[in-house]
Amino acid sequence: MVATKRNEESISDKRESVIRDKLARFARVPAEASFDLEPCSSPLGLTEEAAQSAFKKHGSNIFVTERAPKAIALLYAAVAHPFNFILTALAIVSIATGDKATFVVMMVMVLASTGLRFWQESKSFSQAAKLLNSVTHRVRLLRANKEIELDRKEIVPGDVLVLTSGDVFPGDSLTVTQASLTGELMPVEKKPRLVLASPEFQFDILDNDNICLAGTSVATGSGHAMVISTGSKTYMASIAKDLAKSRPLNAMQLGVRKVSYILLTFMLVMAPIVFIIQGAISKDWKGAIVFSIAVAVGITPEMLPMIVSSNLALSAVRVARKKVIVKRFDAIQNLGAVSVLCSDKTGTLTVDHVRVSASITGFGDQSNFPLRLAYLNSALQTGTRSLIDCAIVDLVQEEGFSKFSTEDSSGEDDVTLEEWDKVAEVPFDSTRRLLSVLVSRSRAAPDEKGLLITKGAVEEVLDHCTRVYDYSSSSSSPPAKLVEFNTQANTKLLTSDDQRQILETATRLNEDGLRLVAVAYKSAVAMSYMTVTRDDETDLVFVGFLGFLDPLKPDAADAIDRLSKLGVQVRILTGDSPAVAAKVARDLGILPSTSISLEHLAIQMEPQVDETNLMITGSQLAALSDNQAAFNDAIEKCLVFAKVSPRQKLQVVKGLRKSGRAVAFLGDGVNDALAIHEADVGISVDSGTAIAKEAADVILLEKNLEVIAHGILQGRITFMNTIKYIKMATSSNFGNVFSVLVASAWLPYQPMRPLQLLFQNLLYDFSQASIPWDNVDPEYLVAPKAWNAWSIARFMIFMGPTSSVFDICTFILNWFRYGIQDGNSPDVSRAQTNWFIESAMTQLFIIHFLRTDKIPFFQSRASFPVVATTTFVGGIAMAVPYVPVLNHALGMGTPVREFYGFLAAIVVAYALLVHIAKTIYRRTFKEWL
Ligand SMILES: Nc1ncnc2c1ncn2[C@@H]1O[C@H](COP(=O)(O)OP(=O)(O)OP(=O)(O)O)[C@@H](O)[C@H]1O
Ligand SMILES: [Mg+2]
């Protein structure tokens, strides 16, 4: 075992070093020369033929995380379970005592539970892999000098990627153009190598300048990179095992594991006790061994792994019908526990169709000057195409600039992109909230060619402006020809009064629900190969705003209402302005409709949070960061967080999680990825950026909050059905052990033959296998449930002995009514059969009694699969004494007819007792399952 493990390790070490060596070879040569290392590749991309032959050679580029596990791995996981080892060991002990039949029954149990688990899992994993396939992963790349989009799967080594912020590297790649790229959570700058590395060059896979690993993403910047390795040849694939290990177990997984350990310990204690008592009283030590083995098997919850995995798989398939794709099955469990849903605003709460609905000056007058400048900025930038940029470009391409023209500006030119050359840009990021493009105008005077056009969030743009465009001045305003207008003319100093007026205009528009982008420019030197940085975004001239209409989804308010009925609080975390966020929140019913004073929020930014203040801005939050208590309090109380940075979105999620709640985060942008990653359940949408999708556990193929409510409901059903099984299994085991102890101490014969005990256990296993398909009473689904070990323990201790009462009644019946008091009596087999039937029937009824706190069959009915299996198994239990071969094999007697009358009475009395116990239990502990 150890040897094979070492072997395995050295194989994976070898694989890793092959992968590393290849990357090192590329990392040390200058970017230009790197194309010589990959056959057929060139800076213009592969030709279609070269790509096809590379695809034949390297195959589909599927991420390890998306591959269905191999059947052999699933089989191994199902077989190599501690329960199987225990059952097999016990089976071997019993065959050593010459008991072949016991051995056979036990091995049937092992095979049944392992087989069912394997079958369920392989079926659902292959379904899951299919579902994951429906999530799109588009990658932009060059092929034969043409920029195209392809699915990630079709990428091959040698491909030249065209990257921008938010993109995920489809394979291990080498940066080849000069734009800077940054890596993952802790951004690292990557740049192409210009000269050959020195001979002492040491390649470090996790710390280098020019290699970007598959699965990492571009935080900011844009550029080109050449793919070196794909699929199973990537570094990510070589460490896949460690990746899987590093994922911590969730509360439910830990709980299930704990329950298993507790039951195993219980078994290790009880089996020897039963053995000693049985042996001492009967003096048949060999019989006592076999009997105590059967008791030990009875305590082992061998169906638990199968129930847990079936439950999850079943739910994953059910939510997929609503177009919700779960990347890892255990995310379903977390979904059920969620009590706070944090959401980004655009596209999830609002319809995903942002339209430009205003182009105005800072003082509220219509003008198409802001739109014309913004169009150049949006059309020429090469970063992530945000909804805002798409809206601007679409409007201009469809309607030109006429929509916002004023009468005296009828002669304005259409901005034709051919007359403009983009020289450089500073891409948008959600912390700076600006996007600048440096352009060169072919027709302008030589010293007037360069223009830096910046657009971004209002306050941020205003902060970088020192002048404002003066529309009221006498000369043509706004300028007729952008390509040649004089950038110095018609501007005046930006006074604090102007600033106040501009902010007031912005707040007014925001309050109407308009999302705003401010536009500014300055004249700048623009020569080829120049670069611009954020430091150039100073001394700008303020031009005006573009207003965007981003209406709420018609069903969003209903969905939020539904979520709140499920005990899930919805909070908004947005980078947008407080006024827009407040409007959206009010329209959705997240904030009360009475307006919250916005002055101190938007303008004064005083760090204060009180009861009525349910909203906070990023800068207020930042101001609180020195005061941990106030900071936590704000996170606890605020429902709307406006103008928050990506890191603050993360902080809020972290803070909420620390207070013990399970948090889901729904978002689609680069700025949401950190928070998505941190949340208990990260949710993204299929149209979201690659980085957000990569970080998410759940992907919505259709943007819709309603389906999240459905997912949460499914998660709770999964949770309840698992808990149901655990509570049933533990309490009935506990009851049985208790009965066996009483019987061993009292009866001079075994209360049931070991083989019968095992057979009954097998029947019980089968009837419980249908529990994942059971209904759950709606009352259990209205609030998030957390794993509670104490609740399971007290249920077991309280409910377990109820069945023992009737087991003991059966012993009494056997002893006094039928006079079976002697171990050598020929009637012993009848006594054993009586208890077999009574115990089997009570165990089957308990499934119906415990699954609900209502009156079973009348007020709450089990699902068809549960009714069918329990009825079927009950029929078998009753029939066994009369089936010729079976009754002989199991050593059954035939109960007298009168016994069935007693049996019916026992079942009725049992139902009554359970009902009374249930009522007391519920009154005392205020819960049932
Ligand atoms: N492409 C862009 N160009 C210029 N400014 C932008 C751009 N995208 C966003 N902004 C500005 O930055 C602000 C914050 O936007 P960002 O997309 O970072 O926030 P968000 O949290 O994703 O918002 P939402 O909740 O609406 O999705 C916007 O309100 C807008 O003023
Ligand atoms: Mg967003």
From TrEMBL:
Kindly indicate whether the keyword rRNA-binding belongs to this entry. Answer: no
Q: Which SUPFAM superfamilies match?
A: Calcium ATPase, transduction domain A, Calcium ATPase, transmembrane domain M, HAD-like
Q: What class of enzyme is it?
A: translocase
Show where the Cation-transporting P-type ATPase N-terminal domain sits.
Answer: 25-99
**Reaction(s) catalysed (UniProt annotation):** Mg(2+)(out) + ATP + H2O = Mg(2+)(in) + ADP + phosphate + H(+)
Coiled-coil annotation reads: none
Does the keyword ATP-binding belong to this entry?
yes
User: What Enzyme Commission number(s) does the record list for this chain?
Assistant: 7.2.2.14
**Sorted alphabetically, which keywords does the UniProt record give?**
ATP-binding, Cell inner membrane, Cell membrane, Magnesium, Membrane, Nucleotide-binding, Phosphoprotein, Translocase, Transmembrane, Transmembrane helix
The topology of this chain with respect to the membrane is: Multi-pass membrane protein
Against Pfam families, the record matches this protein to: Cation_ATPase (PF13246), Cation_ATPase_C (PF00689), Cation_ATPase_N (PF00690), E1-E2_ATPase (PF00122)
Q: Which InterPro entries match?
A: ATPase_P-typ_cation-transptr_C, ATPase_P-typ_cation-transptr_N, ATPase_P-typ_cyto_dom_N, ATPase_P-typ_P_site, ATPase_P-typ_TM_dom_sf, ATPase_P-typ_transduc_dom_A_sf, ATPase_P-type_domA, HAD-like_sf
Q: Where's it found, cell-wise?
A: Cell inner membrane
TM ranges are: 73-95, 101-119, 261-281, 287-314, 795-813, 833-850, 862-880, 900-921
Under the heading NCBIfam families, the entry gives:
ATPase-IIIB_Mg, ATPase_P-type
Q: Name the PANTHER family on file.
A: CALCIUM-TRANSPORTING ATPASE
| The family this protein is said to belong to | Belongs to the cation transport ATPase (P-type) (TC 3.A.3) family. Type IIIB subfamily.
* Function (record text): Mediates magnesium influx to the cytosol.
The name of this protein is: Magnesium-transporting ATPase, P-type 1
What is the native source organism of this protein?
Answer: Piloderma croceum (strain F 1598)
